[in-house]
Amino acid sequence: MMPHTWRPMSAVARDMGFLSEFRSSFCGPFNSVFRTFRFISVLQEMHIAAATLVQTTHQPAALCAVAWLLPAVWIVGGLLGVADGFVVVWVANDEAHCIPPQVDSLSVGTVGAC
Predict the structure, then answer these.
(1) CA atoms within 13 A on the CB side of 71
(2) How far apart are CA 105 and CA 85, in angstroms?
(3) CA-to-CA distance for 3 and 10, rounded, in angstroms?
């Protein structure tokens, strides 16, 4: 059970009169950071799967190549996250939930390709 003093952030912001500033300052930067780490996480999972496949097939040369690609996973994930931040700008609805105004095609394409 929630305490009687608990209120959603949207109600607090609405009462304080800065809901529009809260929306604009929260949705953009925080969701961009979240999406960047989501891209990195998905690509790291694919890297783990590729390393496991190479290890189970006993290919040491390929395992060395996969190990060298780990920094590239971080770089590509970071670049995809930054690109996604420019392609899809998230906005807040009336309850201060961040939603994309359109389909996030870069995320859907990356996750679908993996």
Answers:
(1) 1
(2) 12
(3) 17
Residue ranges of the chain whose pLDDT lies below 70: 1-25, 94-96
pTM: 0.68
Q: Which secondary structure element, helix H or strand E, spans residue 46, and what is its range?
A: helix 19-56
State which amino acid sits at residue 51.
Answer: A
Question: In terms of Cα–Cα distance, which of 104, 91, 113, 96 is closest to 36?
Answer: 104
pLDDT digits (tens, 9 = 90+) for 90-104: 777 766 677 777 777
Joined together, the tokens standing for residue 103 give 């389909």
Count of residues making up the chain: 114
